[in-house]
Design brief:
Layout: H1 2-16, E1 33-36, E2 46-51, E3 56-61, E4 65-68, H2 69-74, H3 76-84, H4 89-96, E5 102-107, E6 117-124, H5 131-144, E7 148-157, E8 160-173, E9 176-189, E10 192-201, H6 205-216, E11 220-221
Antiparallel strand pairs: 1-2, 2-3, 3-11, 4-5, 5-6, 6-10, 7-8, 8-9, 9-10
Helix pairs in contact: 1-5
Length: 223
């Protein structure tokens, strides 16, 4: 458990810096991202994206651009994605690494400096780990990074009982200090931990928070 968390959680901050991240995920590689029909529960202005090979779906604002792990590994689509979304270079690099736990990323293409984004990590976790065990371990790893504005607690997500952490991190981006707001939603299913991370600049947090919450509550796992 400690080894897994030591890999996954610092990687989330590395992504925010747009330097990319590594790590070893146990889940199989993702297939294509599909846009599927919205349901009555889908928030207005959102579109549902499904990553078939990982068995999950999530809704994001319609204008956001998305990429999954297998597309990044194939290379053809990734070049176009990088050209259209230069501020998301770190996410693309993370997706492109073989066996990366990151399986999906979506970014707001309107950004020219730091791109507000969401990414989904899928990693193996002991199937017998209790809710208290894995959530305490996750929280401890985040606290070790000395975040500010830290809030945490249980949250009910569509797949079941999850955990939410929100915090700020001061990081260097392209040589300039930036304060980022990070909202993480986590849920465990069997031997896998799903971590949904939304990152934006601190100044955008108040405006973006409702979007993050709406999106996270559309996350679904298909059996």
């Amino acid at each position: 458990m400690r080894r897994l968390l030591a890999v996954v959680l610092p990687a989330l901050l590395l992504l925010a810096v747009a330097d990319g991240c590594g790590g070893s995920g146990g889940a199989k590689s993702a297939t294509n991202v599909d846009t599927v029909a919205a349901s009555l529960e889908t928030p207005a202005g959102f579109t549902v994206r499904r990553v078939r090979g990982q068995g999950f779906a999530i809704a994001v604002p319609k204008e956001w651009r998305s990429l999954d792990a297998s597309s990044a590994l194939r290379g053809k689509r990734v070049k176009q994605f990088e050209q259209e979304n230069p501020a998301a270079a770190g996410a693309v690099e993370a997706l492109s690494r073989p066996n990366s736990p990151m399986k999906f990323v979506a970014v707001d293409p309107s950004a020219t400096d730091f791109a507000t984004n969401v990414n989904v990590l899928v990693s193996r976790i002991p199937s017998g780990a209790s809710f208290d065990t894995w959530t305490k371990a996750e929280a401890a790893q985040i606290e070790a990074l000395r975040p500010t504005h830290l809030k945490q607690g249980p949250v009910q997500l569509t797949p079941g009982k999850g955990y939410k952490l929100t915090y700020h991190a001061k990081l260097m981006i392209r040589g300039q200090p930036r304060e980022l707001a990070i909202h993480q939603f986590m849920v465990k299913r069997g031997g896998f931990l799903y971590v949904i991370t939304y990152t934006t600049s601190a100044g955008e947090e108040a405006k973006r928070s409702p979007t993050f919450d709406d999106s996270a509550h559309t996350f679904q796992l298909k059996t």
